[in-house]
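Morning. Coffee machine broken again, so started the prediction first thing and wrote up yesterday's gels while waiting. Chain of 543 residues, entered below exactly as on the submission form.
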Amino acid sequence: MLDFQRLGLLGAASLAVAALILLPILAVLSSVFAPASGTWSHLVQTALGAYVWNTALLLAGTAAGVMSMGVLAAWLVTAYRFPGQRLLEWALVLPLAMPAYVTAYAYTDWLQFTGPVQSWLRAATGWQARDYWFPEVRSLWGAAAMLSFALYPYVYLVARTAFLDLSRSALEAGRLAGHSAWGSFVRVALPLARPAIAAGTALALMETLADFGTVSYFALEVFTTGIFKAWFSMGDSDAAGQLSAWLLGFVVLVLALERASRGRAAYASATRKPALPQRLAGAPAALAFAACAAPVVFGFLLPAGILLQLVLASPEARWGVRVLALVGNSFILAGITAALGVVLATAMAYAARLSRSRPVAIANRCASLGYAIPGAVIAVGILVPLARFDNWLAAWVEASFGMRIGLLLTGTIVALVYAYLVRFLAAAMNTMEAGLAKITPSMEDAARSLGAGPASTLARVHLPLLGSSLATAGLLVFLDVMKELPATFALRPFNFDTLAIEAYQLAQDERLAEAAVPSLVIVAVSVLPLLVVWRRYFQATRS
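Came back before lunch.
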């Protein structure tokens, strides 16, 4: 039995929030026990194998891409000094502001048969359509490349931190053993940073599993596209739920592989003296610069330039009232979710600090599970029970009072914000827990000795000290909501589109020039919060 008196009001609220976060996940898992329908039998016979195989290949390709770009860039900017290194150390996070589906729209226009690259190639060589081979960007490996460009910063950030934490003695021991600079990297730095690299790769792969815009635009048969096909095209919510359960299985597999790859690997430095970076000049400096600049160019500068050129060169790309309305809708959703996320995360983190009870700690960890769940899965898990509740409530009101109220929650902003909170509350929670951990408990004891209660202590003592954490948590949630596509696509109210929805729909209609306008707005709005958060992280890792 839970001791609610010991938990307090905030502790009980933490348990309630955790239950709401877990509800969509449990709803999806319960669909596994639903009777097999004709739709599900058809999917098992015709499509399930392709979903499994293509999803596995997409994960493998993305993992190779994010690790090769993220680890190499992190090592070069931490172990060496070369012209442009300080600028690139910052710029390497910019692709996080460029969603993978936006990158896909840009490269499709650039690399397609009628695009500038192939048009220039034919003009320069005199070739005709069937005289040459050109890689198809709208393919599984093209999708893996788009996702790699967008997601490698997850690996770069954690690998950079791990390499900064390497002690001078560890690398000097490698040199004494006769290893070259490259040998020290492969045989010393990489094994010591393996746990961090595995964690960053797992984050990128979970985002890959959650992606809908890129794989849908490239017409790939993977689980996210299959979920929406079963849901909207076939009209079978149970089959969509069963596919969502399979996708959850992939999430669990990625987390298990990450845990297994780390094993019991751990590293602690007794001296905490960071290794001194080596200065490069000439050809080595140029190569290092090129290796670090390439991900920034291909992951941010080039797609942004392509989109901007489309906007400037195409009269159909307009910055009109429609775009302003989309900006307003996106800001409303992101602002509401960010405010609620910060409030809930602060309350739950503070409850765990006050009660120090195991149930509250477990509840907070459960509330963080949503970040690992793809938006398509969360949408299915919310819509099915919410629609049943709405139908039951409408029937009860009509039977009791003779009134027809319709569906109150389904297809409203309430359902959409709920999905966002399930998905992104973890980002705010981790930030607030880290911020509270830096405040010494003696300050609380002093406040209480002066007669201040928990609420007064939070308002007068903690919140003034948590200004930076509050801003960071809010910006992280705001940034995530601005880019979110699958949950928005499934749960948005009728005729309530966002920038992400508009860009997706225009791209699906092959109106890429018009899709460039909302895409550029998403990128522009995302850059500022990203740089603010990055500056805080950069200062923390350099201190």
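Residues 267-271 have pLDDT under 50 and may be disordered. Going to sketch it on the whiteboard this afternoon.
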